[in-house]
Structures are given as C-alpha cells and as structure tokens.
Amino acid sequence: xxxxxxxxxxxxxxxxxxxxxxxxxxxxxxxxxxxxxxxxxxxxxxxxxxxxxxxxxxxxxxxxxxxxxxxxxxxxxxxxxxxxxxxxxxxxxxxxxxxxxxxxxxxxxxxxxxxxxxxxxxxxxxxxxxxxxxxxxxxxxxxxxxxxxxxxxxxxxxxxxxxxxxxxxxxxx
Length: 173
Prior knowledge:
The chain is α+β, with helices and mostly antiparallel strands. The chain has helices at residues 2-20, 42-49, 52-55, 86-100, 103-106, 128-137; strands spanning 38-39, 62-64, 71-83, 109-117, 120-127, 144-156, 159-170.
C-alpha cells in the first residue's frame, strides 16, 4: 500500500513539474492579418468612443481605449496631410504605456492624413514608411481599404476626435 501511495505521489509531483514549465503568461505576439480586421466604418468606431461609459469624467481631454477594435474601412483620400497633433500622439503613447509595454512600437506614427467616408472627414494617423508606401501605390486617387486600430480620442473644445492608427491598406476587393 505504501508503495502505491509513493508511486501516486511521485506521478503527481512529476506532472506538476512538467506543467510548471509551460509559460502561463501571454505568448509571442503575431502580426495581425487581414482576417483579423472586421469590416466596419469610421462612423461606427467613432460612435463607440462617444458613449458616456467610454469617456468617464466629462472634464477629461483624452480617452485611452483598451479595445483596439481592428477594423477594415473603405475611404477616399481627401488631399491633405499634417504632422500628428501632440494631443493625438499622447493618446498613442499612453495606450502603449498602459497596454502594450512597448512605446517604441507606436512612436513612428507621426503623420495624419485626411480621408472621407460618406461625406465626413477623418484624420487618420500613419507611419512615414506606410504613408510613403501608400503614395507609391498610386491608390490615393481612388477608394481604398484601410486596416486600422482605435487607440482612443482627444477632446478639442467640445468635440471628441477619435485616434485611429492605419496599419495597412489595400485595393478594395
């Protein structure tokens, strides 16, 4: 009987030791693929940020949203670019600090590009490298599918402006 108890105890301890070697934290990150992005609109994404629950204190000037909501939208280039305003860049920095643990990943997002969707204009943030690739593609004169993530929003005056980072683009299918 004692041998059976010892054998059972040895088996249990071995199983625990083997299981302890498996990592319990998050695994290696993988790049998002086009299938990871849900079809949607900028209007829908912006509306999610304007719900009272997502904003918190009405006196705040910045919202950092933990839900990136990877989305594929169809938009048209509106002909303008600008350097990303500091307030929008701060949303990205805060998101990276709070949720990604890697500020350097979001640092290159520094150029805003104006796009239209159903007659409404939106400033979307690109990396310089991705923007150069967009220009080289010659797709800027036609509707284009953008693959983007939502970081949060900034308040300018009484208006909340969403912060969207463009991760990729493609010709509409």
